[in-house]
Amino acid sequence: MRNEEGLRVIEIKKSVYEDNDREAQQLRQELREKGCFLLNLMSSPGAGKTTLLSQTMQRLPVGLSRAVMEADIDSDVDARRISEIGVPVSQLHTGGMCHLDAGMTRQGLASLEGDYGLVVLENVGNLVCPAEFDTGAALNVCILSVPEGDDKPLKYPLMFEVCDAVLINKIDVLDYFDFDLERCKEGIRMRNPKAEIFEVCAKSGLGIIEWCSWLEGKIEAWKEA
Amino acid sequence: MRNEEGLRVIEIKKSVYEDNDREAQQLRQELREKGCFLLNLMSSPGAGKTTLLSQTMQRLPVGLSRAVMEADIDSDVDARRISEIGVPVSQLHTGGMCHLDAGMTRQGLASLEGDYGLVVLENVGNLVCPAEFDTGAALNVCILSVPEGDDKPLKYPLMFEVCDAVLINKIDVLDYFDFDLERCKEGIRMRNPKAEIFEVCAKSGLGIIEWCSWLEGKIEAWKEA
Hints:
The structure is a homodimer. In chain A, helix 2 packs across helix 8 (208-224).
């Protein structure tokens, strides 16, 4: 399904990708030197990124300094929610862009005052484009919520391929939707056998301890590497 | 939130948009001459496009010849579902692209055998990029499902600005989510005072008759224009 126009767009994107990959690699190195673990959180619109983030920020160990960057096309709804729990937050407006790239992430980091051991980037709600742009993060995580359907790993391959963990969220409404948990997990494993899978309900806090323990382990291992 | 890299990407996209707008306008004219009404259906992943489409295809008047184009990055899950109800369907793979443009839509139309009074394009599940590319459609419709949250019109402005109608889907699970129907409608009206709003449950068929009647009226008015 590629015509002349389509191919041309793809060629343009290819060079954008290469430039971005270089910049992401450089940012990742700089963050390592500073001891700042960057987590890139991605999902469809409304899958529960902000709620999950709010829970996560409140349950990680006290000694870990933390901040959040909220990327949105418009509005500051999410930044206000994070601010309410007392975590430093920076609102990034993408100016219509459907994803963050490494350069935009770098600008976002500069806008945070102070140094942090963990910064979480809440990417634009989009299951397609953010997966194409390396932000320089040490860890990529995706949320898939039950109401979206268990077929998403089949239909949006790249997102599941690039993620280190997938959180299946809104597990509390499983009974109200045609969602086969095993079929979903099979789909995720088909795309990415190494991806860690968590079942959570960000709203009630179910499964958040397991997820936070795993994340803490990842940050510790990263520090020692 | 624009750096040098960001601006460059935007410049590239701008010329792509202009080329696409021209091609979309030409395609729209050709479709008018052929008497083919093209509907572009957009939403986040998992908002219920295929279920809504299946219901719609089965409830429109018998005399209206119809076909469907399913645009996906990968898989043919949706095309198989539409094929099962006996409606001609063409599966378009976008090769990783996050939206359809007018050129890809034209290729999709060419792949459908025969002439139809109505063709529905199910766009890639994405609340951002498809809104940026005119496909040449006579009507743009977006689905917003209750589990996604009532703040989506605030966070994804362009999608709601370009749509002629918004279908609020999965209205049956309203009790299980923090979703304020009035706040959602206010948000839609703020973005687009002319957009028609329908409350539906595509799974059970609730509200589908009202939506189909409205669509039928739109097709009739278009024919007479």
